[in-house]
Amino acid sequence: MKKSLFYFLLFACQVVFGQSKYLKDVLPFPLGAAVNPRLLAAQPTYREIVSSEFTGLTAENHMKMMLVHPDADRFDFSKGDEILQLAQKEHKRMHGHTLVWHNQVPKWMNEYKGDAAAWEHMLKNHIQEVVGHYRGKVTGWDVVNEAFLDDGSLRPSIWAKNIPDYIAKSFQWAHEADPTALLFYNDYGQDGKPKKMAAILQMVKELKARNIPIHGLGLQMHINIHSKKDELETIINQSSATGLAIHFSELDVAVNPKNDSTFVNTTETQHAQLQRFEWVFLAYLKIPKNQQYGITFWNVTDGDSWLRSYFKRPKEFPLLFDETYLRKPMYDQLVQKIADAK
Ligand code: G3I
Fold first, then answer.
1. Looking at the DSSP assignment, which residues form a beta bridge with residue 27?
2. DSSP 156
3. Rounded-to-integer distance, Cα 243 and Cα 291, Å
4. For labelling, which of 15, 129, 285, 297 has a CA lying 20 to 30 Å from the CA of 262?
5. Centre of ligand 1 from the C-alpha of residue 313, in Å
6. pTM, whole model, 2 decimals?
7. How far apart are the C-alpha atoms of 263 and 318, rounded to whole Å?
């Protein structure tokens, strides 16, 4: 029997014989997932979980520079559009990720030659073509992604090197292309990195003082079972004190962060992971309601997680669905905990 058919049958059994409440139904805000169009097309069970479990979608890769703008004179919106069409068909919110990043930049941009005006023109054109293409269809954009280092300095990148004030300009250009889109700054690992967090807060302060349109902060939330709750609480409070919309934009909770090859996901580590997920959702519910943009998981099942593919960590289990596409035992407990807390 084909593996995908086997998974689908397993999944169908869970639906018929034991599916309880949906996490999305106990939440007063959108629950998103970053998705991969290849899996949506090839894996009916993946597609079914995306449809039934989530109310928001983010393209895990297919709206990034490298994929959407492969050549200087060519944009390729095909895969991003596929995800958008699914979102529209199923009335899910589409979140855009990401316009300006140091990573996943096409070769032609990395090799681009020109003066500051030419660089500005190139980036402005990129941002405005992409945002313009999705105008009115993408609710919010991660305009700038991961611009600061842990020590609070601006991350060296082709953008920082060639375009003075590129962060503010990027927000301005995105706003011109779609004045209705919510514009986010998105970053990871602010917990326990006070200088990085301070740099982000200072950036927000300065952008606001200059009337540059910034509407939200994305906290990626790639955390693990040892992440310190007090450090997370501090950055959540500091972020929400800006008054901006807050998006937990790439949530996963690693159980084997050191990539121990002998790791076994015991009941203890599973319980620790459940506790972190519970903590994250309950902390999010404490953010003022009008700032709750939503929580987005970074892909759907353990088998699809970037921690396995990108970081080559085969013994990692960071999500709510296992690699056979079933809800993990902690799913129901998480739902119950949130329902009880409301
Ligand atoms: O699609 C190609 C495939 O054709 C090729 O055979 C294969 C060979 O390596 O690569 C495939 O592309 C990979 C792509 O993921 C799709 O799986 C890229 O190599 C790989 O670099 C890329 O990794 C992505 C990573 O960003 C790049 O930095 C991850 O999927 C994606 O989850 C990750 O997402 C980032 C967020 O955008 C920002 N925050 C951190 C997060 C995790 O790094």
1. none
2. P
3. 7
4. 297
5. 14
6. 0.95
7. 13
